[in-house]
Amino acid sequence: MSLVGKKAPLFSAPAVINGEEIVDNFSLEQYVGKQEVIFYFYPKDFTFVCPTEILAFQEKLAEFEKRGVAVVGASCDTEETHLAWLATPKANGGIEGVTYPLVADPAKTIAHNFGVLAGEWNYNEEGELIYEGAPVAFRGSFLIDKEGVVRHETINDLPLGRNIDEMIRLVDALHHVEKHGEVCPANWEEGKEAMKATKEGVSEYLAKN
Q1: Integer Cα distance of 66 and 62 in angstroms
Q2: What φ, ψ does residue 126 adopt, rounded to 5°?
Q3: Which of 12, 24, 96, 178 has the fewest CB atoms within 10 Å around its CB?
Q4: Any stretches that span the bilayer, and where are they (predicted)?
């Protein structure tokens, strides 16, 4: 089930902040009423596609922050594993230099509640509890507004990396809609014309484009 239009699931979990400090009770609630959040999941620490995404978010962090948007990552690893990876240089496959929070979800409850867990517990024919699928998170991305409501979500399969610029475009679109009361058509980017959500508005936009 999609979370779009609903409150983002609540959680309190360990996280690594500033690339070096473990906190025990990190929560997205700290942003409610203050700023939007890009909350994203990646499958696993010390892997291959994941560091490219994590570092790409870091490279664009200033672009998110100047728009008043916080970036928070999460996986089903422990906070200690996050910390070890953050201390590993990029040349050795690490993510040293990442400063935004990375949430630890080893119980997989956060991933489950956000609908991105790549597997689930089940019972086999012998009545034994087993895990079916991959015990990691898909590449889920959520744009959460200042009221804590999910306004956009995408979920990629494990091998498919994200486009971070698209996340910035979506933030710009949300801000434009909230500021101007217009809607953003296909391929809209900041600085381009939007349109009124009326029959006349659509006709006028299509006539120009």
Answers
A1: 6
A2: -85, 0
A3: 24
A4: none
Res 206: pLDDT: 74
Contacts of 107 (CB under 8 A, 6+ apart): none
Task: Tell me what pLDDT residue 205 has.
Answer: 66
Q: Which residue has the tokens 């015990």?
A: 135
The answer to whether residues 120 and 132 touch, using CB atoms and an 8 Å cutoff, is yes
Q: What sign for the dihedral angle of Cα 103, 11, 33, 188? A: positive
pLDDT given for residue 191 in this prediction: 80
Residue in the structure block whose two tokens are 């508005």: 201
**Could you give the CA distance from residue 205 to residue 209 in angstroms, rounded to a whole number?**
6
On whether the CB atoms of residues 38 and 143 are closer than 8 A, the answer is yes
pLDDT at 209: 79
Instruction: Parse the chain into domains and list their residue ranges.
Output: 13-162, 163-209
Is residue 97 within 8 Å of residue 69, measured between CB atoms?
Answer: no
Exactly one of 3, 16, 32, 50 is catalytic; which is it?
A: 50
Which pLDDT does position 194 carry in this prediction?
73
184 among known catalytic residues: no
CA angle 156–157–160, rounded 5-degree value = 75
Q: Please give the average pLDDT of every successive group of 10 residues along the chain, which has 209 residues.
A: 95 97 98 97 96 98 98 98 97 97 97 96 93 95 98 97 96 92 83 77 73
Write the DSSP string, 88-143: S-GGGT--TT--S-EEE-TT-HHHHHTT-EEEEEEE-TTS-EEEEEEEEE-EEEEE
Name the β-bridge partners of 74.
41, 103
